[in-house]
Amino acid sequence: RNLSRIQQRNGVIITTYQMLINNWQQLSSLNGQEFVWDYVILDEAHKIKTSSTKSAICARAVPARNRILLTGTP
């Protein structure tokens, strides 16, 4: 319910990779229609370095016009 309000108001959601794994489907739709985020910003990008991990797969599954990956790991 709160997620729908955020999507309708063009808000921001901050979540963890585990929550992304558990909720990527809810993040990908609004009222049964595909929802495309303007930006998906992912911190600790080294956690999705391996494309076959659940985190990486779910991060790619969330529709977005732009993706920004952040990391402090060299």
UniProtKB/TrEMBL annotation:
Entry keyword annotation includes Hydrolase: yes
Protein keywords: ATP-binding, Helicase, Hydrolase, Nucleotide-binding
Statement: the UniProt record of this protein carries the keyword ATP-binding: yes
SUPFAM superfamilies (alphabetical): P-loop containing nucleoside triphosphate hydrolases
Domain Helicase ATP-binding per the UniProt entry, residue ranges: 1-74
GO MF, any single term: DNA translocase activity
Database matches in InterPro entries: Helicase_ATP-bd, P-loop_NTPase, SNF2-like_sf, SNF2_N, SNF2_RAD54_helicase_repair
Gene3D superfamilies (alphabetical): Tandem AAA-ATPase domain
Pfam families linked: SNF2-rel_dom
Family: Belongs to the SNF2/RAD54 helicase family.
Protein known as: Excision repair cross-complementing rodent repair deficiency, complementation group 6-like protein
Organism: Mustela putorius furo (European domestic ferret)
